[in-house]
Amino acid sequence: MSTVPIAQAGGRWCSPAVLAILGAQFLTALADNALLLVAIAVLEARHAPAWTTPALRVGFYASYVLLAPLCGRWADAWPKGRLMSAVNLVKLAGVLALALGAGPLPVFAAIGCAAAVYAPARYGMLPERTAGRALVQANAAMEIVTVAAILGGAALGSALVGAASLDAACLLLAAMYAGGAALTLPLARSHVIAQRAGSGFRAALAVLLADPPARHSLALTSIFWAAAAVLQFLMLDWARRAFGLSLAQAALVPALFAVGLVAGALAAGNWQALPGILRPHVCGTALGAAILAMPLAMTIGAACALLLGAGLLAGALLVPMNATLQQRGASLLQPGLSVAVQNFMENGLSILFLAAYGAALAAKASLNGAIRGLGLSVIVLVALMAWRGRAPGRSAIGEPQ
Question: What is the tally of structural domains in the chain?
Fold first, then answer.
Protein backbone atom coordinates (compact mmCIF):
# COMPACT_ATOMS: atom_id res chain seq x y z
CA MET A 1 0.00 0.00 0.00
CA SER A 2 1.24 3.47 -0.80
CA THR A 3 -0.45 5.30 2.02
CA VAL A 4 0.81 5.66 5.58
CA PRO A 5 -1.71 5.04 8.38
CA ILE A 6 -2.60 8.23 10.23
CA ALA A 7 -2.05 6.37 13.51
CA GLN A 8 1.69 6.62 12.95
CA ALA A 9 1.47 10.39 13.17
CA GLY A 10 0.11 10.25 16.70
CA GLY A 11 -1.10 7.48 18.97
CA ARG A 12 -3.62 9.43 21.09
CA TRP A 13 -7.10 7.98 20.94
CA CYS A 14 -8.84 11.28 21.79
CA SER A 15 -7.81 13.29 18.71
CA PRO A 16 -10.34 15.78 17.26
CA ALA A 17 -11.11 13.41 14.38
CA VAL A 18 -11.82 10.48 16.71
CA LEU A 19 -13.99 12.69 18.92
CA ALA A 20 -15.97 13.76 15.85
CA ILE A 21 -16.49 10.10 14.92
CA LEU A 22 -17.63 9.33 18.46
CA GLY A 23 -20.05 12.26 18.43
CA ALA A 24 -21.54 11.21 15.12
CA GLN A 25 -21.86 7.62 16.35
CA PHE A 26 -23.68 8.78 19.48
CA LEU A 27 -26.28 10.80 17.58
CA THR A 28 -26.76 8.10 14.94
CA ALA A 29 -27.08 5.22 17.40
CA LEU A 30 -29.33 7.32 19.65
CA ALA A 31 -31.72 7.88 16.75
CA ASP A 32 -31.49 4.24 15.61
CA ASN A 33 -32.48 2.86 19.02
CA ALA A 34 -35.28 5.36 19.55
CA LEU A 35 -36.56 4.61 16.05
CA LEU A 36 -36.85 0.91 16.90
CA LEU A 37 -39.36 1.64 19.66
CA VAL A 38 -41.25 4.09 17.47
CA ALA A 39 -41.44 1.43 14.73
CA ILE A 40 -42.70 -1.18 17.24
CA ALA A 41 -45.39 1.26 18.40
CA VAL A 42 -46.45 1.85 14.78
CA LEU A 43 -46.70 -1.92 14.17
CA GLU A 44 -48.81 -2.39 17.28
CA ALA A 45 -51.05 0.54 16.34
CA ARG A 46 -51.62 -1.14 12.97
CA HIS A 47 -52.31 -4.52 14.69
CA ALA A 48 -49.45 -6.25 12.86
CA PRO A 49 -48.72 -9.94 13.70
CA ALA A 50 -46.34 -10.63 16.60
CA TRP A 51 -43.60 -11.98 14.32
CA THR A 52 -43.23 -8.59 12.61
CA THR A 53 -41.53 -7.15 15.71
CA PRO A 54 -38.35 -9.30 15.46
CA ALA A 55 -38.69 -9.00 11.67
CA LEU A 56 -37.71 -5.34 12.07
CA ARG A 57 -34.26 -6.41 13.18
CA VAL A 58 -34.08 -9.27 10.69
CA GLY A 59 -34.47 -6.81 7.82
CA PHE A 60 -31.90 -4.53 9.43
CA TYR A 61 -29.33 -7.29 9.87
CA ALA A 62 -30.04 -8.82 6.45
CA SER A 63 -28.83 -5.58 4.89
CA TYR A 64 -25.46 -6.05 6.62
CA VAL A 65 -25.15 -9.59 5.30
CA LEU A 66 -26.24 -8.88 1.73
CA LEU A 67 -24.14 -5.73 1.34
CA ALA A 68 -21.03 -7.00 3.14
CA PRO A 69 -19.17 -7.87 -0.10
CA LEU A 70 -19.57 -4.26 -1.28
CA CYS A 71 -19.61 -1.93 1.71
CA GLY A 72 -16.11 -2.80 2.91
CA ARG A 73 -14.63 -1.79 -0.44
CA TRP A 74 -16.71 1.40 -0.46
CA ALA A 75 -15.45 2.31 3.01
CA ASP A 76 -11.83 1.88 1.90
CA ALA A 77 -12.25 3.50 -1.52
CA TRP A 78 -14.08 6.67 -0.41
CA PRO A 79 -13.20 9.26 2.24
CA LYS A 80 -14.84 7.73 5.29
CA GLY A 81 -16.09 11.03 6.71
CA ARG A 82 -17.95 11.80 3.49
CA LEU A 83 -19.41 8.29 3.42
CA MET A 84 -20.62 8.57 7.03
CA SER A 85 -22.33 11.89 6.28
CA ALA A 86 -24.08 10.43 3.23
CA VAL A 87 -25.30 7.44 5.24
CA ASN A 88 -26.87 9.68 7.87
CA LEU A 89 -28.70 11.59 5.16
CA VAL A 90 -30.11 8.29 3.84
CA LYS A 91 -31.33 7.45 7.33
CA LEU A 92 -32.88 10.91 7.57
CA ALA A 93 -34.82 10.19 4.38
CA GLY A 94 -36.03 6.86 5.81
CA VAL A 95 -37.39 8.52 8.95
CA LEU A 96 -39.25 11.11 6.89
CA ALA A 97 -40.71 8.29 4.76
CA LEU A 98 -42.04 6.64 7.94
CA ALA A 99 -43.72 9.91 8.91
CA LEU A 100 -45.34 10.03 5.48
CA GLY A 101 -46.92 6.60 5.95
CA ALA A 102 -44.30 4.11 4.76
CA GLY A 103 -44.29 0.71 6.47
CA PRO A 104 -41.83 0.19 9.35
CA LEU A 105 -40.41 -3.02 7.85
CA PRO A 106 -39.19 -1.56 4.53
CA VAL A 107 -38.03 1.61 6.29
CA PHE A 108 -35.92 -0.40 8.74
CA ALA A 109 -34.52 -2.50 5.91
CA ALA A 110 -33.48 0.66 4.05
CA ILE A 111 -31.90 2.11 7.18
CA GLY A 112 -30.10 -1.20 7.64
CA CYS A 113 -28.61 -0.82 4.15
CA ALA A 114 -27.27 2.58 5.17
CA ALA A 115 -25.95 1.23 8.47
CA ALA A 116 -24.15 -1.60 6.66
CA VAL A 117 -22.03 1.00 4.88
CA TYR A 118 -21.65 3.15 8.00
CA ALA A 119 -20.07 0.50 10.24
CA PRO A 120 -16.93 -0.24 8.13
CA ALA A 121 -16.34 3.48 7.71
CA ARG A 122 -16.76 4.16 11.43
CA TYR A 123 -14.61 1.33 12.74
CA GLY A 124 -12.21 1.48 9.79
CA MET A 125 -11.13 4.98 10.79
CA LEU A 126 -9.96 3.92 14.26
CA PRO A 127 -6.90 1.82 13.26
CA GLU A 128 -5.95 4.60 10.82
CA ARG A 129 -5.63 7.08 13.69
CA THR A 130 -4.69 4.93 16.69
CA ALA A 131 -2.56 1.87 17.36
CA GLY A 132 -1.76 -0.55 20.18
CA ARG A 133 -3.22 0.41 23.54
CA ALA A 134 -4.68 3.61 22.08
CA LEU A 135 -6.69 1.46 19.66
CA VAL A 136 -8.09 -0.58 22.55
CA GLN A 137 -9.01 2.66 24.33
CA ALA A 138 -10.61 4.08 21.18
CA ASN A 139 -12.64 0.87 20.81
CA ALA A 140 -13.66 1.11 24.46
CA ALA A 141 -14.76 4.71 23.86
CA MET A 142 -16.70 3.61 20.78
CA GLU A 143 -18.47 0.85 22.70
CA ILE A 144 -19.22 3.19 25.61
CA VAL A 145 -20.62 5.85 23.29
CA THR A 146 -22.69 3.23 21.47
CA VAL A 147 -24.07 1.77 24.68
CA ALA A 148 -24.75 5.23 26.08
CA ALA A 149 -26.73 5.86 22.90
CA ILE A 150 -28.62 2.59 23.49
CA LEU A 151 -29.49 3.80 26.98
CA GLY A 152 -30.47 7.23 25.75
CA GLY A 153 -32.32 5.75 22.79
CA ALA A 154 -34.38 3.53 25.10
CA ALA A 155 -35.30 6.54 27.25
CA LEU A 156 -35.94 8.77 24.24
CA GLY A 157 -37.97 6.12 22.43
CA SER A 158 -40.00 5.56 25.58
CA ALA A 159 -40.74 9.28 25.82
CA LEU A 160 -41.62 9.54 22.13
CA VAL A 161 -43.94 6.53 22.26
CA GLY A 162 -45.64 7.81 25.38
CA ALA A 163 -46.02 11.48 24.51
CA ALA A 164 -45.13 12.64 21.01
CA SER A 165 -47.00 12.17 17.75
CA LEU A 166 -45.42 10.15 14.96
CA ASP A 167 -44.66 13.29 12.95
CA ALA A 168 -42.97 15.03 15.90
CA ALA A 169 -40.96 11.90 16.75
CA CYS A 170 -39.73 11.51 13.17
CA LEU A 171 -38.75 15.17 12.91
CA LEU A 172 -36.66 14.91 16.08
CA LEU A 173 -34.94 11.74 14.85
CA ALA A 174 -34.30 13.37 11.47
CA ALA A 175 -32.59 16.27 13.24
CA MET A 176 -30.30 13.79 15.04
CA TYR A 177 -29.29 12.14 11.78
CA ALA A 178 -28.61 15.58 10.31
CA GLY A 179 -26.39 16.37 13.32
CA GLY A 180 -24.44 13.15 12.81
CA ALA A 181 -23.90 14.03 9.16
CA ALA A 182 -22.66 17.50 10.07
CA LEU A 183 -20.08 16.16 12.55
CA THR A 184 -18.33 13.93 10.01
CA LEU A 185 -18.53 16.35 7.09
CA PRO A 186 -15.23 18.08 8.08
CA LEU A 187 -13.58 14.63 7.76
CA ALA A 188 -14.55 14.40 4.09
CA ARG A 189 -10.90 14.60 3.01
CA SER A 190 -9.78 11.96 5.46
CA HIS A 191 -7.52 9.00 4.77
CA VAL A 192 -8.32 6.85 1.72
CA ILE A 193 -6.82 3.39 1.41
CA ALA A 194 -5.51 2.10 -1.90
CA GLN A 195 -7.21 -1.13 -2.91
CA ARG A 196 -5.04 -4.23 -2.81
CA ALA A 197 -5.07 -6.53 -5.78
CA GLY A 198 -7.18 -9.63 -5.26
CA SER A 199 -8.72 -8.37 -2.01
CA GLY A 200 -12.23 -9.68 -2.67
CA PHE A 201 -14.77 -10.32 0.05
CA ARG A 202 -14.59 -14.12 -0.12
CA ALA A 203 -10.82 -14.01 -0.02
CA ALA A 204 -10.94 -11.67 2.97
CA LEU A 205 -13.37 -13.98 4.76
CA ALA A 206 -11.04 -16.93 4.14
CA VAL A 207 -8.03 -14.96 5.41
CA LEU A 208 -9.69 -13.99 8.70
CA LEU A 209 -11.11 -17.45 9.29
CA ALA A 210 -7.64 -18.95 8.71
CA ASP A 211 -6.08 -16.65 11.31
CA PRO A 212 -6.59 -18.14 14.83
CA PRO A 213 -6.92 -14.85 16.79
CA ALA A 214 -9.26 -13.34 14.20
CA ARG A 215 -11.33 -16.52 13.90
CA HIS A 216 -11.74 -16.79 17.66
CA SER A 217 -12.70 -13.13 17.96
CA LEU A 218 -15.21 -13.41 15.10
CA ALA A 219 -16.88 -16.39 16.73
CA LEU A 220 -17.03 -14.74 20.14
CA THR A 221 -18.39 -11.38 19.02
CA SER A 222 -20.93 -13.07 16.73
CA ILE A 223 -22.33 -15.19 19.55
CA PHE A 224 -22.59 -12.24 21.91
CA TRP A 225 -24.25 -9.89 19.40
CA ALA A 226 -26.67 -12.54 18.18
CA ALA A 227 -27.71 -13.27 21.76
CA ALA A 228 -28.04 -9.56 22.50
CA ALA A 229 -30.26 -9.06 19.43
CA VAL A 230 -32.81 -11.63 20.63
CA LEU A 231 -32.39 -10.67 24.27
CA GLN A 232 -33.53 -7.13 23.50
CA PHE A 233 -36.93 -8.36 22.31
CA LEU A 234 -37.17 -11.04 25.00
CA MET A 235 -36.60 -8.45 27.71
CA LEU A 236 -39.31 -6.20 26.30
CA ASP A 237 -41.80 -9.05 26.09
CA TRP A 238 -40.83 -10.52 29.45
CA ALA A 239 -41.11 -7.20 31.32
CA ARG A 240 -44.54 -6.52 29.86
CA ARG A 241 -45.95 -9.99 30.55
CA ALA A 242 -44.35 -10.68 33.92
CA PHE A 243 -44.84 -7.25 35.49
CA GLY A 244 -47.61 -5.68 33.43
CA LEU A 245 -45.46 -2.80 32.18
CA SER A 246 -46.36 -0.66 29.20
CA LEU A 247 -44.13 -0.55 26.12
CA ALA A 248 -42.73 2.80 27.27
CA GLN A 249 -41.90 1.38 30.72
CA ALA A 250 -40.55 -1.97 29.48
CA ALA A 251 -38.25 -0.14 27.05
CA LEU A 252 -36.14 0.92 30.03
CA VAL A 253 -35.50 -2.65 31.24
CA PRO A 254 -32.88 -3.52 28.53
CA ALA A 255 -30.98 -0.44 29.67
CA LEU A 256 -29.54 -2.47 32.55
CA PHE A 257 -27.81 -4.79 30.09
CA ALA A 258 -26.43 -1.69 28.38
CA VAL A 259 -25.17 -0.28 31.71
CA GLY A 260 -23.27 -3.52 32.25
CA LEU A 261 -21.78 -3.20 28.77
CA VAL A 262 -20.50 0.27 29.63
CA ALA A 263 -18.89 -0.98 32.85
CA GLY A 264 -17.29 -3.92 31.06
CA ALA A 265 -16.03 -1.70 28.26
CA LEU A 266 -14.49 0.72 30.76
CA ALA A 267 -12.72 -2.17 32.49
CA ALA A 268 -11.46 -3.60 29.20
CA GLY A 269 -10.17 -0.23 28.02
CA ASN A 270 -8.10 0.30 31.16
CA TRP A 271 -7.05 -3.23 32.13
CA GLN A 272 -5.52 -5.21 29.31
CA ALA A 273 -5.04 -8.28 31.47
CA LEU A 274 -8.81 -8.71 31.70
CA PRO A 275 -9.24 -11.08 28.72
CA GLY A 276 -6.60 -13.41 30.18
CA ILE A 277 -8.56 -13.65 33.43
CA LEU A 278 -12.09 -13.77 32.07
CA ARG A 279 -11.69 -16.48 29.47
CA PRO A 280 -14.16 -16.31 26.59
CA HIS A 281 -15.84 -19.64 27.30
CA VAL A 282 -16.30 -18.70 30.98
CA CYS A 283 -17.95 -15.39 30.09
CA GLY A 284 -20.10 -16.98 27.40
CA THR A 285 -21.26 -19.68 29.76
CA ALA A 286 -22.02 -17.06 32.42
CA LEU A 287 -24.08 -15.05 29.93
CA GLY A 288 -26.05 -18.14 28.94
CA ALA A 289 -26.62 -18.99 32.61
CA ALA A 290 -27.85 -15.47 33.35
CA ILE A 291 -30.36 -15.75 30.50
CA LEU A 292 -31.50 -19.16 31.73
CA ALA A 293 -32.06 -17.71 35.21
CA MET A 294 -34.36 -14.91 33.99
CA PRO A 295 -37.63 -16.87 34.40
CA LEU A 296 -36.61 -17.67 37.97
CA ALA A 297 -36.45 -14.00 38.92
CA MET A 298 -39.48 -13.20 41.05
CA THR A 299 -38.94 -9.45 41.02
CA ILE A 300 -37.89 -7.01 38.34
CA GLY A 301 -34.95 -6.02 40.55
CA ALA A 302 -33.56 -9.57 40.47
CA ALA A 303 -33.94 -9.73 36.70
CA CYS A 304 -32.20 -6.38 36.28
CA ALA A 305 -29.30 -7.62 38.41
CA LEU A 306 -28.91 -10.62 36.11
CA LEU A 307 -28.97 -8.41 33.03
CA LEU A 308 -26.45 -6.03 34.57
CA GLY A 309 -24.03 -8.88 35.20
CA ALA A 310 -24.52 -10.32 31.72
CA GLY A 311 -23.80 -6.94 30.17
CA LEU A 312 -20.65 -6.55 32.26
CA LEU A 313 -19.26 -9.83 30.93
CA ALA A 314 -20.18 -8.96 27.35
CA GLY A 315 -18.59 -5.51 27.44
CA ALA A 316 -15.40 -6.78 29.06
CA LEU A 317 -14.80 -9.14 26.16
CA LEU A 318 -16.29 -7.32 23.18
CA VAL A 319 -13.88 -4.39 23.41
CA PRO A 320 -10.61 -6.37 23.28
CA MET A 321 -12.09 -8.80 20.75
CA ASN A 322 -13.03 -5.89 18.47
CA ALA A 323 -9.54 -4.46 18.87
CA THR A 324 -8.07 -7.84 17.97
CA LEU A 325 -10.18 -8.04 14.82
CA GLN A 326 -9.22 -4.53 13.76
CA GLN A 327 -5.52 -5.11 14.35
CA ARG A 328 -5.50 -8.44 12.54
CA GLY A 329 -7.72 -7.04 9.80
CA ALA A 330 -5.50 -4.00 9.27
CA SER A 331 -2.44 -6.26 9.18
CA LEU A 332 -3.85 -8.97 6.91
CA LEU A 333 -6.38 -7.01 4.84
CA GLN A 334 -7.79 -3.47 4.75
CA PRO A 335 -9.71 -1.89 7.68
CA GLY A 336 -13.02 -1.41 5.88
CA LEU A 337 -12.99 -4.87 4.31
CA SER A 338 -12.14 -6.46 7.65
CA VAL A 339 -15.04 -4.71 9.39
CA ALA A 340 -17.37 -5.74 6.56
CA VAL A 341 -16.43 -9.39 7.16
CA GLN A 342 -17.05 -8.91 10.87
CA ASN A 343 -20.47 -7.40 10.17
CA PHE A 344 -21.30 -10.29 7.83
CA MET A 345 -20.51 -12.90 10.48
CA GLU A 346 -22.12 -11.11 13.42
CA ASN A 347 -25.29 -10.08 11.63
CA GLY A 348 -25.60 -13.40 9.82
CA LEU A 349 -25.72 -15.24 13.15
CA SER A 350 -28.05 -12.56 14.54
CA ILE A 351 -30.46 -13.25 11.67
CA LEU A 352 -30.44 -16.96 12.48
CA PHE A 353 -31.15 -16.25 16.15
CA LEU A 354 -33.90 -13.75 15.34
CA ALA A 355 -35.45 -16.07 12.75
CA ALA A 356 -35.57 -18.83 15.35
CA TYR A 357 -37.20 -16.42 17.80
CA GLY A 358 -39.74 -15.30 15.18
CA ALA A 359 -40.52 -18.95 14.36
CA ALA A 360 -41.04 -19.64 18.07
CA LEU A 361 -43.49 -16.73 18.27
CA ALA A 362 -45.32 -17.95 15.16
CA ALA A 363 -45.56 -21.44 16.71
CA LYS A 364 -47.01 -19.92 19.92
CA ALA A 365 -44.08 -21.10 22.02
CA SER A 366 -44.02 -19.96 25.64
CA LEU A 367 -41.90 -16.98 26.60
CA ASN A 368 -39.99 -19.01 29.20
CA GLY A 369 -39.28 -21.64 26.56
CA ALA A 370 -37.84 -19.00 24.25
CA ILE A 371 -35.65 -17.66 27.07
CA ARG A 372 -34.36 -21.11 27.91
CA GLY A 373 -33.68 -21.82 24.25
CA LEU A 374 -31.58 -18.67 23.92
CA GLY A 375 -29.58 -19.39 27.07
CA LEU A 376 -28.86 -22.98 26.06
CA SER A 377 -27.89 -21.90 22.53
CA VAL A 378 -25.30 -19.49 23.91
CA ILE A 379 -23.83 -22.10 26.25
CA VAL A 380 -23.65 -24.80 23.56
CA LEU A 381 -22.09 -22.50 20.93
CA VAL A 382 -19.47 -21.16 23.33
CA ALA A 383 -18.64 -24.70 24.49
CA LEU A 384 -18.26 -25.78 20.86
CA MET A 385 -16.02 -22.81 20.17
CA ALA A 386 -13.84 -23.64 23.18
CA TRP A 387 -13.58 -27.26 22.08
CA ARG A 388 -12.75 -26.60 18.42
CA GLY A 389 -10.52 -23.59 18.77
CA ARG A 390 -7.84 -22.10 20.92
CA ALA A 391 -8.32 -18.71 22.57
CA PRO A 392 -5.75 -16.12 21.44
CA GLY A 393 -3.01 -15.15 23.82
CA ARG A 394 -2.48 -11.72 25.29
CA SER A 395 -0.26 -10.66 22.41
CA ALA A 396 -3.26 -10.78 20.11
CA ILE A 397 -5.27 -8.38 22.23
CA GLY A 398 -4.44 -4.75 22.45
CA GLU A 399 -0.90 -5.13 21.15
CA PRO A 400 0.31 -4.82 17.56
CA GLN A 401 1.48 -8.02 15.94
Answer: 1
